[in-house]
Amino acid sequence: MMRQAAVQRVMPWLVVIGLFLVWEVACHALAVPQYILPAPSVVFGTTVRYAGPLWDHSVHTLMTTLAGFAVAVVGGVLLGMAVGASPLVYHGLYPVLIGFNAIPKVAVVPVLVVWFGIGTVPAILTAFMISFFPIAVNVATGLATLEPELEDVLRSLGAKRWDILVKVGLPRSLPYFFASLKVAVTLAFVGSVIAETVASNEGIGYLMLQASSRFDIPLVFAGLLVIAAMGVVMYFLFAAVEGRMTGWATRRTAPVAD
Fold first, then answer.
1. Residue 176 in contact with residue 141, Cβ under 8 Å?
2. Inter-axis angle of helices 51-85 and 204-213, nearest 10
3. How do residues 118-155 score in pLDDT, each as one tens digit?
């Protein structure tokens, strides 16, 4: 079991290193120009060379992403509770949520620029809009899947509707909630970067746009790697919190020793 656990911890690193090696070899073997696809060694060198600007812009992107994500968590939980707890609200709002999620967020950014101007606000709002839907839907699903038999038993014991929602429904929906957080936080980065490429003078998206206008493709890929790294870190951060908060709902994946 210990050997299997060690292999599972090392495997992601081996896969990433293998992908970079294949990428490096393919670029050199096929003589791909740097302005089309730079090799990882070139991208890493560019990352070191532009470490200062990349750090400054990545911090700005991270802050705007977390701000929009925090608003999405609050709004998504509240709306998910309303949708999941009431069939009437579910049938009334769920089609609206689906329609809202179907709107391409990149098409909304120019409207946000007209309303709020160029800067941080459009990036925060775009991060909110793109990460709001999975949180609301998963919380609503967790509440809506509460067994009717369990509700009947709780009512027979004197529990009110609010008691069932807060003391049973919300704890039961925690696995759904944390699963949505892991997806939503990565989507929030997508929203921030989209807005920064259209309506900002700061952030990784703005840096990548400026680099692409100069055909500095290695710097564009360096920005992509920074975004990917931030997304992976945030994903595993919420995965760790999920493991601590919802361990009771996680099935055992490793074989039990005799």
1. yes
2. 130
3. 888 889 999 999 998 889 888 888 777 766 666 666 66
Nearest by Cα to 186 from 62, 97, 79: 62
CATH code of the domain occupying 38-249: 1.10.3720.10
Alpha-helical segments (H) within 200-216? 204-213
Using CA of residue 118, residue 124, residue 125, residue 127, what is the dihedral sign? positive
Domain boundaries, the chain: 1-31, 38-249
Q: How far apart are CA 236 and CA 254, in angstroms?
A: 20
Q: Could you report the per-residue pLDDT of 170-218, keeping only the tens digit for each?
A: 777 788 888 888 889 999 999 899 998 888 888 898 999 999 888 889 9
- pTM score > 0.85 for this model? no
Q: Alpha-carbon Rg of the chain, whole angstroms?
A: 22
> What is the distance of C-alpha 230 from the center of its chain?
10
Q: Where are the alpha helices (DSSP H) in the chain?
A: 2-29, 40-49, 51-85, 87-102, 105-116, 120-144, 148-156, 161-163, 170-199, 204-213, 217-245
